[in-house]
Specification:
mainly alpha; Serine Threonine Protein Phosphatase 5, Tetratricopeptide repeat; globular
Amino acid sequence: MNERIQKIKNFLLQSPKDLFLNHALALEYIKIGDETLAQECFENNLKTDPSYVATYYHLGKLQERIGKTEDAINTFEEGMRIAKTQKDQHSYSELKGAYEDLADL
């Protein structure tokens, strides 16, 4: 197992609901090509706190990459809704761009 993954997992033992650490772990799984574990981490973040807007972009891009286009579109749409309620224009713009690229709008 990758050293960075092990370090993050050790931190998560102390703070299992840490959204940032769980997000970082998902990104590490993507780097080594383990989309299944990455998706589990992202989905765990959304179950823990659906307002953690950073997860929507990365989960949507992962879904897009593995051919789950409708899921990706739905993820981007929900992320845009969350970003808008948080008045997070930067995240909203990123999500909207990814959505428009995928939905061919």
